[in-house]
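Today's session is about reading a structure prediction critically. Students often jump straight to the picture, but the first step is always the sequence itself: look for stretches that repeat, for charged clusters, for runs of hydrophobic residues. Only then move on to the predicted structure, which in these notes is written as discrete structure tokens rather than atom positions. Here is the chain we will use throughout the hour.
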Amino acid sequence: MHLYGLETEYGITREDLAEVDPVVESMELVRAHLTASFERRWDYAGEDPHEDARGFRVSGLAQDKEEDEFAERDAHRPFSFHDMKSDLVLPNGARFYNDHTHPEYSTPECRTLKDLLAQDRAGERIVQRAADRRNKTLGGEHVQLYKNNTDFHGHSYGCHDNYLLPRSIPFVRLVKGLLPFLVSRQVIAGAGKVGIEAQESGFVPGRFQLSQRADFMETELSVDTMHNRPILNTRDEPHADPRKFRRLHLIIGDANMCEYATALKVGTTRLVLELIERGAVPSLELEQPVAAVKQLSRDIDLKAVVRQTNGSSVSGLDIQEQYYRAAAQTFVGLDEETDWVLREWGDTLTWLRQDRRRLIGKLDWVTKLWLLETFMQEERIGWDDPWLASLDLEYHNVHPERGLYLGLEAEGKAWRMTAEADIQRALTAGPADTRGGVRGLCVRRFPDQIKSVQWEQVRFTGGLLPRTLDMSGLFEPAEVNRCLEIFEAAASPADALNAWNGRKDRRS
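Below is the predicted structure for this chain, in token form.
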């Protein structure tokens, strides 16, 4: 079952302030989206990040300590921790909130890559629109937002890709099949980065690498996401029926500006997950995956090799080639989207070996490297010049008049899968074949009658008994379409729920 989504934490700054309070700035940005006062509706009872997919429950997370510190350090603030988060559910079924000092946009669930790209691009417009409103209040273009993963001061924030999986796949098999792929995925999905960085040592200029997140990977497996960051996150929080499904929550990925890179990142990962389910992944096991992530990222010529447990060495491109061949042998002709992913995956690996200039406007690290090298030649500067880190940051600026990537795109130099009409639709409605579309429709039709929202349910006010739309098993497109029809036609949530639940009762 193809179902995926992206969570993107945006970098935020105020250019008119010497010191920025990211807690306040992120909260104010999210609330700038509103035309009315904020009302808390997100239901945190549906979230439990302490459950580990390896079969146990952790007693504490780094984010728990952060929440405690917030309560102690910021007791003087006129808002609570959950008020600070300012969770919003949008008319397109997305979630927009302040996640640990960064504004975060989470797309609704998507079934196709084109829908995912449209919803992701809609997120760029939504956060920038909030910044425009905030800046109007401030009296200048002071707030700037970056779709990237580093502030060049030793801090990283994430872009997480999520996939719905059957619970029947043993987690240990997921780990074995995914780790080599994720270590090497940066050769096609890296956002590119000037310098080397770590939380302890800060930023060191002097070279270019493939990935922004690679420097911050610290362990192979962990349930944490903000400290001791893992290649494979073990959080077991399915946002669906836990007896049938699990959600794979990956935090290793970079935030991509190029639509092509996003489509390949998610499309190839989805195929590898299906290979794992069929028991058809290539036989690969790296000796030191965490070290390999960094080693591969720091070689833009893609010649670096990493050791396998069998004693042989393999490059990042070689790893990707093995996964690609296995997928091509297994899935060619399956459907139109799969064939597109296979064709583009194979072509990309070919051009990375032969002439990566063919991938300018398609892969972020290739595009950014070309921009920076062109600038360095014109200005006669080297990789150690601090100017380059500033340009790196501006590549990811989502302001249409400042962002270097958006400038290239406006000039027609970037590959597009979406059209402007697709993004405009995604601003106001979720996919019509996933529960994200249903969630968004509820927000559009009955905003004043929603008591609380989780990913898998919507609770409505009114009546003596709680009225809840349970979407924990709502995944089949035909069922989603019928649910949308009922809620579109109903005069009230009660009428819609009576019709929807009555239909299910008749079927059972």
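Discussion point for the tutorial: Residues 76 and 122 are 36 Å apart (CA to CA).
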